[in-house]
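Risk register update: the risk of archive-format incompatibility is retired. Evidence:
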Amino acid sequence: MNGVDAVVIGASAGGVTALFTVLGALPASFAIPVLCVLHLPDDRHSQLAEVLQRRLQRPVHQACDKAAIAPGQIYVAGPGYHLSVEADFSLSLSQEEPVHFSRPAIDFLFTSAADAYGPGLLGVLLTGANEDGAAGLAYIKNSGGRTVVQDPRDAQVALMPEAALALHTPDLILSLSGIGQLLATLEPSAC
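Archived output:
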């Protein structure tokens, strides 16, 4: 799977462990930006970026409004804000209404990233307990991007991958370790 400009990952219940597995497979030289939305309670400070950075030994940032997306960086949405990608490949935070009871919502990130990156986007949907991300993943596919869904049999909570599979046929259905191996072999687009 070559010519990928960015990867977006969505997860909910069971997502922290899933992200450790998937992102832990990335080689040190990995040069593609990764943007993650994990459903978080919005009433407290999130330690997700710090926990991932410690565990993965690579740069992980909580997304900041107007920050330019840089190669090889991992960005995670903070609590209480939707994360989206602008046409100039910068990050945007907003407090619009929750989607599927979630803010940040996976669909919000996926659709905005598909508009920005088009065929250069790879969308990955992991374990979770609601339908957030299913419509966004289908939108990525319809925008020319590529899509991967965690095998529901491999998911800690199968509802989110099952919702995605009910809406569209992804390019690949893989276990967490399979998704990690796939990401590890991605080649960035030649500019």
